[in-house]
Amino acid sequence: MLTPRRLLSAGLTACLALVALPVLGEEAPSPDDPKFAASYEQDGLYFTADDIPTFNVAEDGTVDWQTFSGFRRYHAECHVCHGPDGEGSTYAPALKESAVAMDYYDFYGVVAEGRQKVNASENSVMPSFGTNPNVMCYLDDIYVYLKARGLGVVERGRPAKKEAKSEGIQAAEDACMG
């Protein structure tokens, strides 16, 4: 016989099982999807057909400079709240999913302007990093790294191999950092 307590427990278990199931017909995003895949390269930077920064990982695991830089910059500025490798923490969400799910411009806006969600069910505050050159000069790098992590193209930890930093990337970094 199901007591009210067992009935509630069984109901919660069933609800959690349903939440864990993927939506029918929904597939995991693929790094080969044109929305994510590199369409062209410009001076060591890779872009989708829609001119959105993206990653380029060779078959031997060599990552483009921007993805490598994103790993470094993420761990210098973001992992304190969002956890190592974009995995999230008890304090802040996993950004590797955000970089895949969010539009590039929305991602950029949240980092630059910050965001606050305070209501009965949540209390989250993302501070603005719009005046922090250590974030803003490398925001595309961070985005590209997190997108590669979210799509499973780059594993956890420091990438073992990287492309060389191009002169164009160095010049843009120097101009931004002053």
Q: What is this structure's SSE topology?
A:
Elements: H1 4-20, E1 40-42, E2 45-47, E3 53-54, H2 65-77, H3 79-82, H4 95-101, H5 104-113, E4 115-118, E5 123-126, H6 133-136, H7 139-150, H8 167-177
Antiparallel strand pairs: 1-2, 2-3, 4-5
Helix pairs in contact: 2-7, 4-7
InterPro entries: C-typ_cyt_methanol_metab-rel, Cyt_c-like_dom_sf
Protein name: Cytochrome c-553I
GO molecular function, one term: heme binding
CATH class of the domain at 69-178: Mainly Alpha
How many DSSP H or I helices? Answer: 8
Strand content: 5-15%
Q: Main sheet, how many strands, which sense, barrel?
A: 3 strands, antiparallel
The name of the CATH architecture of the domain at 69-178 is Orthogonal Bundle
Rg on CA atoms, Å:
19 Å
CATH overall fold name of the domain at 69-178? Cytochrome Bc1 Complex, Chain D, domain 2
Q: Which structural class do you get from the secondary structure elements?
A: mainly alpha
Shape descriptor: globular
- Describe the strand arrangement of the main beta sheet, using strand numbers: 1-2-3
Order of helices and strands: HEEEHHHHEEHHH
Helix content: 40-55%
Terminus-to-terminus distance: 73 Å
Number of strands: 5
Q: Write down the overall mean pLDDT.
A: 80
> CATH superfamily membership of the domain at 69-178, which one?
Cytochrome c-like domain
Low-confidence stretches are 1-25
GO molecular function, one term: electron transfer activity
Protein name: Cytochrome c-553I
Keywords: Signal
Signal peptide: 1-25
